[in-house]
Amino acid sequence: MTIELLGDRWSLIVLRDIMFGGSTHFRELLTESIEGIASNILAGRLAKLVAAGLLTRDDDPSHRQKVEYHLTEAAIQLVPVMAQLGAWGACWLDTTPELTVRAELLAAGGPPLWQRFMAELRATHLAGAPLPADGVLAELTAAYHEAVAERGQDAAG
Q: How many beta carbons lie within 10 A of that of residue 93, not counting itself?
């Protein structure tokens, strides 16, 4: 049943972008994902993930016509799975440093880091707290941006 829910091409990517990218709005998910998901596919996956209880669909307090998507506890419990999938991909797939840096950090940090990240996700997605400037997501994002900058310097050099 898990494979039926998460085994399509897009469901894990949508969860990844909400979990590790901090995206909560449809437009962010549509434009910031490197895979280039089509809007009708994204709408379908979001509806599927909401119906499955992995996401909630909430009114955005800053704009009447916008909604936000938030992780539920069930989705937050996928952090160790996502970390393991990322570590496997970093080890076995031909990819770039900027695409593997977060997976490598999560693998190196292991369960203690995953637990910190899950606590951070609970605070932001379940309790509505702002993202901490010094949290796990901030660390992962900074490492990603550093890898992107280094790749840009290597290409220019």
A: 9
Distance between CA atoms of residues 121 and 115, nearest Å: 10
Distance between CA atoms of residues 85 and 66, nearest Å: 32
What 3-state class would DSSP assign to 131? coil
Count of alpha carbons within 13 angstroms of residue 157, beta-carbon side: 6
Label the pairing between strands 55-59 and 67-71: antiparallel
pLDDT tens, residue by residue, 73-93: 999 999 999 999 999 999 999
Please give the backbone phi and psi of residue 108, each rounded to the nearest 5 degrees, phi first.
-65, -40
Q: Are 59 and 114 in contact (CB under 8 A)?
A: no
Report yes or no: 75 and 17 within 8 Å, Cβ to Cβ: no
* C-alpha to C-alpha distance for 20 and 98, rounded to whole angstroms: 13
Q: Identify the pLDDT of residue 151.
A: 77
pLDDT tens for each residue of 86-143: 999 999 999 888 889 999 999 999 999 999 999 999 999 999 999 899 999 999 999 9
Q: How far is CA 123 from the centre of its chain?
A: 15
